[in-house]
Amino acid sequence: MANFYDPRGGGNVHFDQVLTNISVDWMNEMDLAADALFPPISVNHQTDKYYIYDRSSWKQEPGDDYRAPGSVANEIPGRKLSMDTYYTQEHALTAVVTPEERQNATAPIDPEADAVTDVTSKIARGRELMAQQIAANPDNYLSDHVVTLSGDDQWDQSDGKPVDVMRDITRTFHLNMGVLPNVAVIPWRIMSYLEDNAQFLDRVRYVQAQVPSRELVRQFFEIDQIVVPGARFDKSRHGQPSDISYLWGNNIILAYVPPSPGLRTPSYGYEFVWPLYGATQYTDRWWSDERKADMIRTGRSYDLKLVAKEPETDETGRFQTGEKSVAGVLIKDVIADDTGLNT
């Protein structure tokens, strides 16, 4: 059939083509906190042990180092060593790229690049979710290292006092740990309220306006590293309506993580990583005759562990309630507006 020009726009003078300079995907900020709390350590075996010193060297009695002339100096007891173990579990995902997809793909679609991006991001997000589940569990901390805010104390309330909360908890942290926390995980939604909090703004009003607000938070709280995770995930099951939540929820985590791992060095946690196929995280591809397709796989073998822990006893002081983290603090229910927060 002939195509006739129609000045009203009804003619077939243009046939739709796929634009090569844009496409639509769903953004998910990958501001991740797992590396800050659980820095990776490469290990040679899938499972092994590591030593933990007790804190008996902190015990001190007046005069126990006195020595009378001609006498033998008091002998100190040896420190107790315990051991913990790690076991690196492989986490891997596979995507399929068919020859039909490759042959039919029109720029800017790149089926192989899309497959690699998808499996890699899902591995990273799964690792992040595992880190969050460990860090947000109050049972993992000494009882006085868990603070729950409510009512007017929450930071999105007019009377909320984040400066006082942070000061109090860092005093407790320093007493039990001997150092100040140097890492703070402050989820994006909480940070957005903190930057508008009246007490915080009153304290920083005379600071130069050119200083970014997050840098102000870091400087004011005297924290070396502040991580503001904004990653989200869909909690719904397949076939159900989306249920989007911020992965890190309504909690703040303060921790001490050394600049580099070492002997006789406390740390909030580590990620024990067993390099498979010579890489911390591998991506490989192979042809499947059965599927008649290329298989794209990404994998990582790791174990996230809280490592600076000690036994805690109950209120009677007689029964241990388990090994608890000394190098971290959990602040729960930081804001009242928990819209979209993973709880």
Description:
The chain has 343 residues and is an alpha+beta fold. The chain has a single domain (34-53, 80-332), classed as phage-related protein like fold. The chain is built from 7 helices and 16 strands. A hairpin with a 6-residue loop joins strand 14 and strand 15.
Q: How widely separated are the two ends?
A: 61 Å
CATH fold description: phage-related protein like fold
Radius of gyration: 27 Å
Secondary-structure element string: HEEEEHHEHEHHHEEEEEEEEEE
Summarize the biggest pleated sheet: 5 strands, mixed
Parts with pLDDT < 50 across at least 5 consecutive residues? 3-11, 13-25
Per DSSP, the total helix count is 7
Shape: globular
Mean pLDDT: 84
CATH architecture: Alpha-Beta Complex
Beta content comes to 25-35%
CATH superfamily caption: phage-related protein like domain
Q: Can you give the helix content as a percent range?
A: 10-25%
What is the CATH top level name? Alpha Beta
Broad structural category: alpha+beta
Number of domains: 1
What's this entry about, in short?
This protein is of the alpha+beta class and 343 residues long. Helix content is 21%, strand content 25%. The protein has one domain (34-53, 80-332): phage-related protein like domain (phage-related protein like fold).
Topology readout:
Elements: H1 34-37, E1 40-42, E2 47-53, E3 81-87, E4 89-97, H2 99-104, H3 111-135, E5 146-148, H4 162-177, E6 183-185, H5 188-194, H6 198-203, H7 213-221, E7 225-227, E8 232-234, E9 244-246, E10 252-255, E11 269-273, E12 282-288, E13 293-306, E14 309-313, E15 320-325, E16 328-332
Parallel strand pairs: 1-11, 5-16, 6-7
Antiparallel strand pairs: 2-3, 4-13, 6-10, 8-9, 10-16, 11-13, 12-13, 14-15
